């Protein structure tokens, strides 16, 4: 199968790119800009994942609740730090908590209305 990538459509691509780079780290690439405004960009994460960004190009974007971006973490400290960073100016949907399915799990709708599902599966004894 080919690779799947989250494609984030926002009015302020540069602002979103700066925010997610601060949250996740990684390197960025501006694909195109016009009149000082970033239209398309990519954020390459250290783990090999990529987030793609696009401007709205004047189209109205309806915030829906049927799509989530899920992140599986390998370190507990990392999920806690990312959860806190996304929660700033965002809305907690599910508090970060231990779950019956063996994961530290939380959900955040961030300031760009992107809904994040975060999991860290603890080692089973």
TrEMBL record:
Location of the Glyoxalase/fosfomycin resistance/dioxygenase domain? 8-116
Taxonomically, the superkingdom here is Bacteria
Q: Which InterPro entries match?
A: Glyas_Bleomycin-R_OHBP_Dase, Glyas_Fos-R_dOase_dom
Q: List residues traversing the bilayer.
A: none
The record, for PANTHER family, names: PROTEIN YJDN, PROTEIN YJDN-RELATED
The protein, known as: PhnB protein
Could you read off the lineage of the organism from its UniProt record?
Bacteria, Bacillati, Bacillota, Bacilli, Bacillales
């Amino acid at each position: 199968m080919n690779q799947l990538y989250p494609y984030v459509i926002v009015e302020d691509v540069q602002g979103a790119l700066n925010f997610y780079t601060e949250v996740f780290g990684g390197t960025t690439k501006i694909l195109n800009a016009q009149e000082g405004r970033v239209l398309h960009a990519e954020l390459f994460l250290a783990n090999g994942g990529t987030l793609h960004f696009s401007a709205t190009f004047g189209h109205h974007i309806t915030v829906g609740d049927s799509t989530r971006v899920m992140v599986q973490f390998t370190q507990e400290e990392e999920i806690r730090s990312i959860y806190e960073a996304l929660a700033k100016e965002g809305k907690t949907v599910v508090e970060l908590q231990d779950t019956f399915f063996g994961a530290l799990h939380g959900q955040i709708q961030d300031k760009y209305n992107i809904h994040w599902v975060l999991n860290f599966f603890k080692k089973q004894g």
